Amino acid sequence: MNLLRTVTSFLLIFFLSPSLVLCAQVKLSVGLTIAPYVIKAKNTNEKDSGFELDIIREIFALEGYEVQFIHQPLERTKISFKQKLVDGVTAIKKHYPEIQGSFVSDEYITYHNFAISLTAQNLKIDSIADLNNKRVIGFQQAKFAFGKEFESMAKQNLGYKEIADQKNQIGMFFLKRADVIVLDQRIFKYIRSRLKNIPTEQEVTFHKLFAPSVFRIAFRDRKIRDVFNQGLRELRSSGRYEEIIRVYMKE
After folding, report:
1. In this structure, what CATH number is given to the domain that contains residue 69?
2. What per-residue confidence (pLDDT) applies to 44?
3. How does residue 108 score in pLDDT terms, banded at 50, 70 and 90?
4. pLDDT value at position 18?
5. At residue 228, does pLDDT exceed 90?
6. Are 221 and 165 contained in the same domain?
């Protein structure tokens, strides 16, 4: 009888305790490696890194959750979420059709793309129109990221191309096989410091043609979304959010 009472009490605690009802692990669909934001581990015994993933991981750790990151091409991340294969999908905007009806977080990460040129070339680039007749290399799908004017330029400019590997994009730029490259400022600085056998010490100019892009996470569960938002506020207010980013940019 005492054993029965003990088991019954344990079951009541298990099912009624809010801390135990919460899911111990959150499965998130994320993109492939975009250093320094997202860096997929090369070996199964290593942990995924990049400051975007570290920020997400620490936010959930504050609230008692573990995170499993599922790496997929960006388009596939949204499909996996729509098919209910994951608990959430990162790097989304509210208008994406695949996440309609979900619970969307506060803004958690910002990308800021620039048109970058070699300062010595003294190029005048104050608008997207100034990219016409210049050799421009963008990241994959860039022509769809900056509105109709940029898309039109990309289609009409015979010197425009896109490269999936941003190391190659930056390498070609410093080898003067492009006049301008378009990519995120942090990605440029991070990769530039790691390129070998290419003269990357040349001074560059960042042309501010694009507004920063802020992203959110879509969740299937309102409670997990609220937990994430709470942890995000705590990480920002403590200063830890910026500290995580600084570690990667110092490297």
Report:
1. 3.40.190.10
2. 82
3. very high
4. 45
5. yes
6. no
| Residue pair 220/23 in contact by the 8 Å Cβ criterion | no
Token readout for 83 is 């098919």
Instruction: Report pLDDT for 74.
Output: 85
Q: DSSP states of 4-68 as a string? A: HHHHHHHHHHHHH-HHHHS-SEEEEEE-S-BTTTBB--SSTTSPPBSHHHHHHHHHHHHTT-EEE
Task: Determine the pLDDT at residue 45.
Answer: 84
227 and 157 both lie in a single domain: no
Domain membership of residue 84 (yes or no) is: yes
